[in-house]
Amino acid sequence: MQRKVIITCAITGSIHTPSMSPYLPVTPAQIAEQAIAAAQAGAAVLHLHARNPDDGRPAFDPALYRQFLEPIHAQTNAIINITTGGAHTMSLDQRLAAALDVSPEMASCNMGSMNFGFFPILDKRKNWQYDWEPEFLESSRNAIFRNTFGDIEQLFERLAKPHGTRFEFECYDVGHLYTLHHFVERGFVKRPFIQFVLGVLGGIGADHENLTHMKRIADKLFGVDYDWSLLGAGRRQMGLVTQAALMGGNVRVGLEDSLYLRPNEIAISNAQQVQLIRGVLEALGLDIATPDEARLMLGLKGGDRVQL
């Protein structure tokens, strides 16, 4: 089973809030520190969101992104992957702002509008550090995470084509694979890098058979002409990404996707999750891709063309 596996680490995201974990990075300094440590632990790709350093709420200001992107770029060789999903409260222009500013090697591209519910977290906690946290969680009950065909076309026209940025296509359900196939047929993308997303309320569940099903449909639609990875949200993270690696895929971990290292044990850093999955992969006889190896595998433009 000698092959290279790309580890992506999603450092902070926009779902978890400061009250949920004291280890969730919020300030630019914390995000940079944890991202650099995750890269040193073996993450070839760093998936990045920004937060307001005063209260931890999701943010989109490119100047805020640069405060952590510049030290990450200077101190690691990792591939920078900037969200274009941001948060459901942001407009498309806001979600694109940071990526358009720095022209990253990679960015996320969400493949469909959907219900994206994280309001059930409210039932698990009663005390909050900031008033915005329960309000933000509750807002997901009636919000739609918008990613229309027109929105996706804008991502290609405004980011992919002029900047040479390649996408991590986040597919939360089977229908998203068919949407991606539509864009492949129209010539927008060749050999996509697909991130199967399992476990978000509103998308496909975090079940092992669902991963098998998503992979089967992707094989049907794309043949061998695609690369893929697995994001398992919540407590099923490590088991699902291990299954993905055994099935020939790449893996994604990080505090954006799960705050835990293993059941009932909260992770103290992103690097801790990277170290754990790296040990599992190596025990399975798999090699960990370096950032430069991942660049070749995914056909990226190179870190020297990022505007940092």
Automatic annotation (TrEMBL):
GO terms for molecular function: 3-keto-5-aminohexanoate cleavage activity; metal ion binding. Keywords: Metal-binding, Transferase, Zinc. Its cofactor is Zn(2+). Pfam families: BKACE. InterPro entries: Aldolase_TIM, BKACE. Gene3D superfamilies: Aldolase class I. This is Uncharacterized protein (DUF849 family). It comes from Glaciimonas immobilis. The lineage of its organism: Bacteria, Pseudomonadati, Pseudomonadota, Betaproteobacteria, Burkholderiales.
